[in-house]
Specification:
There is one protein chain. Helices cover 32% and strands 29% of the residues. Strand 4, helix 3 and strand 5 form a beta-alpha-beta unit. It contains 12 helices and 18 strands. By secondary structure, the protein is an alpha+beta fold. Strands 10, 11, 12, 13, 14, 15, 16, 17 and 18 form a 9-stranded antiparallel β-sheet that branches. The structure holds adenosine monophosphate. The site of adenosine monophosphate has 13 residues, from strand 15. Adenosine monophosphate binds next to strand 15.
Length: 364
């Protein structure tokens, strides 16, 4: 079996690494000649929307999946008309536009922050009178890791925030005074079987995920499972999906979902019976899904911009390093490491050591 992946970054790389023991082969389409997954399979080098390359990908692969959600709709449709594509283009379309996504959540009874669409400075001024300060202005499309968004605290912030969108349609969201951020990663197979991972508790800085901790037996687990299964069943979703949520005093509020394997699920490689990457492959191939149970206590720390030497990281006990083989660049995720422990106290201490190392080289 050969799996085609749009994109050959670290997510594609970790999917391929999980697929080798299952006897799977991989073909990647990526515009970068030195994309980090390339050594793990065949590489079609060129633009995502090149029809010749897309046809080639569809011809070589038994199933196509992707590692990023901003796949143009016509590209996903083209592939789906030539081969099996999971998740289906519909999930991409919903996830790509924050307004469509929020309306989808609302229709499914999944709470969101209050929001209004914004097309110009005047409509932003009107929107803020309903939503109030503080609020966050986000571009409807192409936003990730906090890009394309501004916090507005007062009237003076409105014009600069609007300018930052550079004319793109926006959505104004009320600022959610969350106690913490969590995400639920789940897999749904072609046959409709679903497994849920334990909640991940996530710490962001500058809009970028820094630390994700597996929270087994979290009091919000059931509510999160109810929301994500509603979403996956409605979309007839196949593959891994991550739903990002805010917890506000015992209630969950949806922020967004990612129709792909997700950074907040990287701890599952060592911290769960079956990793999110393996379960993504099992789901799209309609194989039985693996157990998503936690194995001990686990947490992951991202290395942003730079990574310390492997020797330095390996001085921390029970650590597992994942270098992405990407050249260092400001704000770029270049590696992550996962620590495992038997008690929460031990885990917290290991995470502190790891986060301190990450902060030393962090240039964001
Ligand atoms: P996003 O690009 O929507 O994932 O946002 C990146 C990060 O910005 C989130 O993980 C939160 O830390 C923060 N954020 C986004 N939207 C809101 C909101 N409505 N209220 C409070 N914080 C937010």
């Amino acid at each position: 079996m050969k799996i085609g992946i749009l994109g050959a970054g670290q997510l594609a790389r970790m999917i391929a690494l999980a697929g080798y023991p299952l006897g799977l082969e991989f073909v990647f389409l990526d515009p970068s000649a030195d994309a980090c997954a390339n050594p793990l399979g065949e590489h079609l080098h060129g633009d995502y929307s090149d029809p010749r390359l897309l046809a080639e990908l569809a011809a070589r692969a038994d199933v196509v999946t992707y590692e990023f959600e901003n796949v143009p709709a016509d590209v996903a449709e083209f592939l789906a008309s030539h081969t099996q594509v999971h998740p289906a283009p519909k999930a991409l379309a919903v996830a790509q536009d924050r307004l469509v996504e929020k309306a989808y959540f609302r229709d499914l009874g999944i709470p969101t922050a209050p929001y209004t669409s914004v097309d110009n400075l005047k409509s932003l001024e009107q929107a803020i009178s309903g939503i109030g300060f503080p609020a966050i202005l986000k571009s409807c499309t192409m936003g990730y890791d906090g890009k394309g968004q501004s916090l507005v605290r007062s009237t003076e912030d409105l014009a600069p925030a609007w300018e930052q969108l550079a004319g793109a349609p926006g959505v104004l969201e009320g600022f959610v005074p969350f106690n913490r951020e969590v995400s639920i990663v789940a897999a749904r197979s072609v046959s409709g079987a679903i497994v849920f991972y334990p909640l991940s508790e996530n710490v962001h800085r500058g809009g970028i995920l820094r630390i994700a901790t597996c929270r087994e037996d979290d009091p919000m687990q059931q509510q999160a499972e109810a929301y994500v299964s509603r979403l996956m069943n409605e979309l007839n979703y196949v593959g891994i999906l991550a739903l990002e949520l805010f917890e506000v005093d015992g209630e969950l509020v949806a922020n967004e979902f990612a129709p792909r394997v997700h950074n907040s699920g990287h701890w599952t490689i060592e911290g769960a019976e079956t990793s999110q990457f393996e379960n993504h492959l099992r789901a799209i191939l309609d194989l039985p899904l693996g157990s998503s149970s936690a194995v001990g206590k686990a947490a992951m720390v991202n290395f942003i911009g730079n990574v310390p030497t492997t020797e330095e990281i390996l001085t921390i006990p029970n650590v597992h390093v994942h270098l992405y083989d990407k050249s260092p660049r400001k704000g770029r995720k270049v590696a992550h490491a996962t620590v495992r422990a038997e008690t929460t106290e031990q885990l917290d201490s290991l995470v502190k050591q790891l986060a301190a190392l990450a902060d030393q080289v962090d240039d964001s």
